[in-house]
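Protein chain data
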Amino acid sequence: MNKRPTIVDVARHAGVSKSTVSNVLQNSPLVKPATRAVVERAMIDLNYVYNRSAANLRGGDVGLIGLVINDLRNPFFTEFAASAQMSFASRGYATVIANTDEDPALQARVIASMIEHGVSGFLISPTYVDEPRALENVWRAGIPAMQVLRRIDARTDIFPFASLDYAVGGRLATRHLIAQGARRIAFVGGIADRPVTLERVAGYLEVMREAGLAPRAFHGRPSRAFGRDIALRLAAAAPEVEAAVCFSDLVALGMLAGFAEAGVRVGEEFRLVGFDDIEECALTWPRLSSVRCDVARFGRHSAEAMLAWLETGARPPECHLAPVEMMARHSSLGG
């Protein structure tokens, strides 16, 4: 089934009226036991799930949205979740937010719990899993769900996907560094072969290839600690590398710390660009150049797309990539 079954579908299948089905759902004593059994069998046949939250919404009470986030310790994802939550709240919806901490088993548990508590819809920034249909229970429950920022289920006709145009961001960052005179440019961070890493590195590789330059990548967990370690390694063993596009701002901020420790002046001796443009980029010194994703705006737009789906039935597009822009600051411009 690709369409969520409705009360009308159940009534038609059972050969009763819509009001009779509604009375069964409300446990009305007016329904005869035999009729109740027919309606309940129809629900099983159609895999109908009663969404009490949506029913409450139609009755004037609050609706509940599930926000499932892979890493709320990362300011990028925190800002997304906060922006989406505030957008839902402004329209009278409550949210339940879960941090899955990149744990597939925890992700499965929190999604199952939210289904049991009757959420009306999901925004899921998923942790990566091996199962190609890790969201199968969401589909079977018939609950509208969007994948955001990451995609683990390729069925975008069922789970629309919205993210940022990471490939364009990689191109913008690499072209910017080449325009500053850099030629030996590395890509730093991101777990190899993860879809989001491949998206962010794709633009870098494309521009390096177009310019006839040799790419060089240092993949690893996108953390400050990894960025610091790579900066110390480059300063000690690969001084020929003169610039880097980082998988994330956390990696770039770690590299700032590592180069400071090694006595390398970022912006003059080494040029550096992060990715995401979290608030700290404009507050650190040297100020960090970054690919701006405007994740707050993206969070608002994602929430609005979900609300339109719930309230008017207007499905989001199967795949939407929001624009990004290059924010050049001291870490790449120098001066």
